[in-house]
Amino acid sequence: xxxxxxFLTGKLAEKNLHRVLEAMQxxxxxxxxxxxxxxxxxxxxxxxxxxxxxxxxxxxxxxxPGRCRGDLDALSxxxxxxxxxxxxxxxxxxxxxxxREKQPDLSRYDIQIFAEIVDAPDLDIATIxxxxxxxxxxxxxxxxxxxxxxxxxxxxxxxxxxLRAESFRVSVDSVDSHELLTGGKAGANYLLSLRQDTLWIAxxxxxxxxxxxxxxxxxxxxxxxxxxxxxKGHRYLADPILDPMLFGFTESLCRYHQLRQxxxxxxxxxxxxxxxxxxxxxxxxINTLLIGIASELGIxxxxxxxxxxxxxxxISEADVARRxxxxxxxxxxxxxxxxxxxxxxxxxxxxxxSKAEIEETAAAVRDPSYRVQVSDxxxxxxxxxxxxxxxxxxxxxxxxxxxxxxxxxxxxxxELARAQIAWQLxxxxxQDRELDWGCACDKVEEDLICPATPGSTLxxxxxxx
Length: 465
Hints:
Layout: E1 3-9, H1 11-23, E2 29-35, H2 46-52, E3 61-64, H3 72-79, E4 82-85, H4 93-100, E5 112-117, H5 125-138, E6 142-146, H6 156-165, E7 169-173, H7 177-186, E8 190-194, H8 201-204, E9 208-211, H9 219-232, E10 237-238, H10 249-262, E11 269-271, H11 273-276, H12 283-297, E12 301-304, H13 314-331, H14 355-363, E13 371-375, E14 378-383, E15 386-390, H15 393-396, H16 406-425
Parallel strand pairs: 1-2, 1-3, 3-4, 5-6, 5-12, 6-7, 7-8, 8-9, 9-10, 11-12
Antiparallel strand pairs: 13-14, 14-15
């Protein structure tokens, strides 16, 4: 017998839920739909389910609307079967069940992120530690201490020791041989960067050197330095140096390819900051592209920076990108449909419902609460009095009746602004929730709830499962 799965829903979503499940046939399970007597599925809570649900016979699993609040683990214990949240939107059910059979494992990666703390000589140790902790939370594996030319760094050794005391792996990034030697003796794990004339430092300390060309673009000198270290049995990372766009970027990429062809087993580092920092473009796409190249070439270390304001999430983006590329390579697939966090500005399926489908839902509404949905045709606002459609919140707002409720009006102004942004950019709009910007910003943990008034639970669209 196939597994029986119970789908809980509200009055407005029931018809759409049946349609979606029928379109998904054949299924590996038998779907059972039960409407709990609430108009809007998104208003369902775990407590409400416990009070109202009389469990049918033979149910193996319960799927509740994605916006359902409450402790589902407690419900699972109460009923003795698994109770879990589905997607926020009914239209995402096929993808939801397709992915459940094979949950993407994004826990693995093979690229180490060096996160540079720039201008470290100007910072005290407490500030450096605080910044390092933040970088580690964002995904950094190694904290890179960025020294400054001709600038004393009297607390360098103490800084390295303080970081090591908190179990950080540390690299020291300097053009000064004395600073590199000091950092290495203090316990640094890596030294950036050695050239042919400074390879002697590798004989003095246990730190792993990162070697670079003697002159920009001189791949031969890099290969010679690598050969010298090979003969001495030293481990090292090789960095041909990635140049900024329009200043040798393409040629520098070719050097990485050439190095990999000539040295298939070499450990290579790529400093992506020269491109993310020095290009006025959203860094998530740049990071994704560069880490995709690194993944193809077997580059296992990158150096990232967060100096320019537009690059403030570069480490988090690199972390997501390396995990996505690793999984895609393992699956021998394109890096698609694995993770949405790099889609900061746009989404693959921004508008789950057409204007006609939203009109059908609006026609069934019998209460005064406003719902807001977005389709490719614009913003749709509806309640029992009808539906308004437009693209400009200022044009829609005068057509809505708030009956003097300023809290209601403020809430709807906020919601219409979000809806406009979603329509303009092609993002998914879910009423009562912040727009999802992926890894471009921190998540907002709590949904926005309108101030309590008789009609203030306004926004639930009624389209969730």
